[in-house]
């Protein structure tokens, strides 16, 4: 098992324990949460390409597990590009790992294979408040963690929830989690729908730009690009390649490893091209 996979898998197991502890009304071991969030954040910043490739994964039986870990990977990279110092990145990572903790008592609803009714949607929208209430029970935790969890569904245009806050009234870390949360959700399957292709998820997120703080939204584009690492692309020649490298200065021109030639035959190992 690679170190990247080991850390990623550790996060899935921790997320499962966190949700189980809250479901049983047990107190969270916050030191464990903090230490893992910091570990994942630091390793993501050291090996961004490796962790971004794992962030396209999902956990079908409980999507919240992978979602929580994937969002930490995304927000860590966004936060770094925004110039956050280490202490702020640590707080962001903790808040991101716990941002959907309020869904713990809504598992049956969250995992429903059909689209939510209006009443169910209203119930689901209470999860950010429930999450903040869970955090209120913990000691020695930065208040920004609570605020970020409470506000991570507030939209810049005031149409979010639970308090319809606008722009500068929204916690800064919440605005970072918000854009990562939406993109990650769109690009991964849910019990009631299939995943969007990454470029479609990016387009959907950008098309809803009035909802988001512009800085983290713009940074998301440079972090994941229109062609995220590990995704597959079919060229107009019919050749098929896998995205193996993306640079921040040319995020619309990734490097592909060609797997299948235009004639349908396997490509030679190591055949790389850069989109232009």
SSE layout and pairings?
Elements: H1 3-23, H2 30-46, H3 48-54, H4 63-81, H5 86-97, H6 107-110, H7 118-124, H8 127-136, H9 143-151, H10 172-186, H11 198-207, H12 214-224, E1 232-234, E2 240-245, E3 255-260, E4 272-274
Antiparallel strand pairs: 1-2, 2-3, 3-4
Give the strand tally.
4
Q: CATH superfamily of the largest domain, please?
A: Hypothetical protein af1432
Q: Can you tell me the CATH topology of the largest domain?
A: Hypothetical protein af1432
N-to-C CA distance:
35 Å
- The parts where pLDDT drops under 50 for at least 5 residues are none
Strand content: 5-15%
Shape: globular
| Cα Rg | 19 Å
Largest sheet: 4 strands, antiparallel
Structure description:
The chain is an alpha+beta fold. The chain folds into two domains: 222 residues, Orthogonal Bundle (Hypothetical protein af1432), CATH 1.10.3210; 43 residues. 51% of the residues lie in helices and 7% in strands. It has twelve helices and four strands; from the N terminus they run ααααααααααααββββ. A four-stranded antiparallel sheet has the order 1-2-3-4, with no helix packed on it. Helix 1 crosses helix 4, helix 4 crosses helix 10 and helix 8 runs antiparallel to helix 9. The radius of gyration is 19 Å and the shape is globular. The two termini are 35 Å apart. The model has no long low-confidence stretch (mean pLDDT 91).
